[in-house]
Write a structure and sequence with these properties.
With about 140 residues, this protein is mainly alpha-helical. It folds into two domains: about 35 residues; about 90 residues, no CATH class. It is built from five helices and two strands, in the order H-H-E-E-H-H-H. It has a two-stranded antiparallel ribbon with strand order 1-2.
Length: about 140
């Protein structure tokens, strides 16, 4: 799953769901190309994280992965964390630089504090995608020379 780090093997649970919820789950799974179980696990995992971190949402990011995004911005949590580190861990300076509210930077930090492995994976994937895109651009420039 895109935003969740490798975890121990899954555990069997039984839930009762309404017929309408099952229909919606089946439709979404068919459209998204995921199995019903994979979709249910992803949605439930995201819902629990959203409840714990209301200023974070999930969005398809680099390479199609689901990545944590700060609400009210176009910034992924890994981008905010990178900027925060570059600003000597100063939340106000980071917020000013990014043009966001300090509470949004704080929300990214709170999420990172709980899910650092996932955010670090997101950053690594984004770096690989950027390197691949740069290499593609370089090849195109050489082809045009």
């Amino acid at each position: 799953m895109g935003h969740m780090s490798k975890s121990p093997p899954s555990v069997q649970r039984s839930f009762r769901l309404s017929q309408r919820t099952l229909e919606l789950l089946d439709e979404a799974a068919a459209v998204g190309g995921e199995s019903r179980n994979a979709l249910a696990e992803r949605l439930l995992g995201e819902a629990v994280r959203l409840q714990r971190h209301p200023l974070v949402r999930f969005h398809h990011g680099a390479a199609g992965r689901r990545q944590a995004l700060v609400v009210g911005t176009r910034l992924y949590v890994h981008q905010v964390m990178s900027t925060l580190r570059a600003c000597d861990n100063n939340i106000d300076t980071t917020a000013e630089y990014l043009g966001v509210m300090p509470r949004q930077v704080g929300a990214a930090l709170d999420y990172y504090a709980e899910f650092a492995d996932d955010v670090d994976q997101d950053a690594a994937v984004a770096q690989r995608v950027a390197a691949d895109e740069r290499a593609r651009w370089d090849r195109r420039q050489r082809a045009l020379a």
